[in-house]
Design goal:
With about 475 residues, the protein is mostly helical. The chain has 18 helices and no strands.
Length: about 475
């Protein structure tokens, strides 16, 4: 477990920022490297060793890829060996249980299940290290000549445990030469507070509503279950986009600029558009390092369909060692294929409202598949969304709904660009600094109060 919110906000983060700006510029990466390790290893110090092993393997792999680059045949050897090591480590710690349980489905096998603790954020930092070595091989990124600098990149605490997936080629110059400014720091504070508010004020409350709906002893009814999955739909967006905003904000405070990871995905008019807006860094990673190397759309329609199915199988598997994640990935893969080759022209002709409703229905059903690891529970819940067997809405579900209705409305509005659009219209006005100050103070008070009153609630994507 990483720091609790209170320790992170009121002890670790202020100390890191203070020391970071006090030490000489040349020593800042050294300080950040060790500060990152303290952050990651706070709850499970042994996992720091695994990360250090990953850092060393990929640093050495990048070194030899660069050394043998004039001969692509020779350079491919350290590239392949490094990728095998990365995937091997990830597979052992994340998928060994799933693999053994799958093999045990065979009638003649009864292998013992190996219990392995899942290192937090291993999927994120493994994809970062793999992209580094691949980009060095492709001449898309410079090789890192400093183990400390490379380690700082891999273990950078703002985005270490839940993304976004930052590719070395996007930050290599910043790692070596960055200039911290007051304006950038101020931007980072505001973005960090936006993300923190998303998590504490909206995501946690929507998560509590969803949990309360699931915990009711009587059936919720068809409407009650739709309200419940609406809560989870809002929770997972504000939880993950909130973390991404916090990561980008913390990066700004340290002089880094990370690419945006979310772009209002819930306003999409198709699932294709949804995946251009949701978890952008992951979609980009799979496109650059799996889909295009497989041949992309360059080898005919049948091959393109196979490539898409492979990518979405891997996307689902990346999210967790459970069959529901694989099903979730294939669900989106099939829908995207249908959209691309069958529905695209029809969707374009429909009114925008119908396109939105179609997309919302598809991704809400997708979140049901994503949430329920037990296939029986998943099936029962999906059936309950489309039958009146348990009525429209139970009294208990109605009470939960009415209690959370104001926040549901606020969350739905906040998931659109309306607030940002209004802010952009007035951000250059003379008085805007007053409103920003009031907003910042109000958010800080509400967040601190919520942190004091709530039990610890980690980000959903910590487990990936």
């Amino acid at each position: 477990m990483v720091f609790s919110r209170g320790i992170f906000l009121f002890a670790y983060l202020p100390a890191v920022l203070l020391i970071y700006y006090l030490v000489p510029r040349k020593a800042r990466n050294i300080f950040l490297f060790f500060a990152n390790l303290v952050f990651y290893g706070w709850g499970e110090p042994i996992m720091v060793l695994l990360m250090l092993v990953s850092i060393v393997i990929n640093y050495i792999g990048g070194y030899f890829v660069e050394k043998f680059k004039p001969d692509k045949g020779k350079a491919k050897i350290p590239l392949v060996l490094t990728i095998i090591a990365d995937i091997g480590i990830l597979a052992f710690f994340k998928y060994i249980g799933l693999l053994i349980s799958t093999l045990n489905l065979l009638p003649f096998l009864n292998l013992p299940i190996i219990e392995v603790s899942l290192p937090i954020g291993i999927s994120f930092y493994t994809f970062q290290t793999m992209s580094y070595v691949i980009d060095v091989y492709r001449d898309d990124a410079p090789v890192s000549k400093s183990l400390i600098n490379f380690g700082t990149y891999v273990a950078l605490f703002p985005q270490l445990i839940a993304g976004p997936i930052v590719r070395y080629k996007d930050v290599s110059e910043q790692i070596q030469h960055r200039t911290e400014t007051l304006e950038q720091f101020n931007k980072g504070v505001k973005l960090f507070l936006v993300g923190l508010a998303k998590k504490v004020i909206i995501a946690d409350q929507m998560g509590a509503m969803w949990s309360n709906m699931l915990a009711t002893t009587s059936p919720n009814g068809i409407l009650g279950n739709w309200v419940g999955i609406t809560g989870y739909t809002l929770q997972i967006y504000f939880d993950f986009s909130g973390y991404s905003d916090m990561a980008c904000g913390l990066g700004n405070m340290l002089g880094f600029e990370f690419l945006k990871n979310f772009n209002y995905p819930y306003i999409s008019k198709s699932i294709t558009e949804f995946w251009r807006r949701w978890h952008i860094s992951l979609s980009t990673w799979f496109r650059e390092y799996v889909y295009i190397p497989l041949g992309g759309n360059r080898k005919g329609v049948p091959r393109q369909i196979i490539n898409l199915l492979i990518v979405w199988f891997c996307t689902g598997l990346w999210h967790g060692a459970s069959y529901n994640f694989i099903l979730w990935g294939m669900y989106y893969g099939i829908i995207l294929i249908i959209e691309k080759f069958v529905l695209r022209k029809l969707l374009d002709k429909l009114p925008s409202a119908i396109q939105h409703l179609y997309t919302i229905f598809i991704f809400m059903l997708g979140w049901v598949i994503f949430y329920f690891e037990d296939m029986g529970e998943m099936g029962s819940f999906i059936v309950s969304l489309f039958t009146l067997e348990n009525g429209i809405i139970s009294q208990q579900a109605l009470t939960i709904t009415l209690h959370n209705l104001p926040l549901i409305i606020v969350a739905i509005i906040a998931s659109t660009p309306l607030g940002a659009t209004l802010y952009n219209k007035v951000k250059d006005r003379n008085y805007i600094w007053i409103l920003e100050s009031v907003y910042t103070l109000a958010v800080m008070i509400i967040v601190v109060a919520a942190i004091i009153n709530q039990s610890y609630s980690p980000f959903l994507y910590f487990r990936f």
